[in-house]
């Protein structure tokens, strides 16, 4: 396994050529994904006349693989070389996402096809993300992890700034199918960038061709009993569940109650991206002064509580647009700081041999909450109204912080305190 091993090396990850390749691939693919985050639901609402229940079903199909496929894919990641898995996942997602615009242009698209494509692409997204989490520590040193995660998060935040705003403009100026095609192309460019990484991944021993149930569930057991991972997992799961309800209500409220266009909705999400970029870029600078766990907790309070302010939205489109933009900026700053710190804690606290499976278990639970939230959000919107759905989702997001507030994570002074930490006492 090839990585920078000089103990005197800087904590900066950018001089590492392999990291720059990984960063470029991640940046390009997430830009396309951010375009699709706005384009796919708008395509469903406008081009396919989706009902609130059908819109929730699209999101359910997209994230259901995190419930069904995460654990076995985590075993696969711990058994195989990670880089080829990531490249294959990118190529597969390119092919799948191109099906959507092609069928729309051919006049044969339907909601059923959208469900299937989003589910299949979701399986490959699970594979890529589990492998990516485990692969990063192989190409950067432990001291470079915080900087590397910060740069990856900053790129993702920058993509939120440009991606969803650009997606809104493209949808309004050209079409939603064309915006989805841009998403697909991003995956192809990412695969080409990853092919330029030069690393000798060590072959991993395989006890048997078929993984045992104990091997599959090892990551799940570790995630649930580890004192740091368990708290972060509870926060992420609660946040993702209610965030899905919040965003679904927001999309319906913006389109049907306020009459906002795609470009204006894109502005709201762009505001969140600006906040996330600022949080990811400057968050590490305050860590040394105030302590790792304390900064993480304050960031969660800031980001998770901001959505509650949507209760003050009214019927005036301009005033509501300004308020939503402000909410997303504050929310983005908190989440931008918290994400960098939480991911780094998880990577530092876990042994390499379990990193893939524990991350798979983490995503099984935390991302598995997304389709459940989407399904419930669609039902709530159908029974009540979009504004009630949005407000209830924002209120639930604020409760997520309690997991970390009452855990040992808030007492971490530095990332070294989490390195190789034992599970529970």
TrEMBL record:
This chain belongs to which protein, by name? MFS transporter
Q: Which PROSITE patterns match?
A: MFS
What the entry lists under InterPro entries is as follows: MFS_dom, MFS_trans_sf, TM_effector
Listed GO molecular functions?
transmembrane transporter activity
Organism listed in the record: Jiangella asiatica
Q: Does the keyword Ion transport apply?
A: no
Q: Which UniProt keywords apply?
A: Cell membrane, Membrane, Transmembrane, Transmembrane helix, Transport
Outline the extent of the Major facilitator superfamily (MFS) profile domain: 229-425
Q: Which GO terms describe its cellular component?
A: plasma membrane
Localization recorded for this chain is: Cell membrane
Q: Which top-rank group of organisms is this from?
A: Bacteria
Which CDD domains does the record associate with it? MFS_MefA_like
Question: According to Swiss-Prot or TrEMBL, what is its membrane topology?
Answer: Multi-pass membrane protein
Transmembrane region(s): 22-50, 62-79, 91-108, 114-136, 231-255, 261-283, 295-315, 321-343, 364-384, 390-409
A family per Pfam: MFS_3
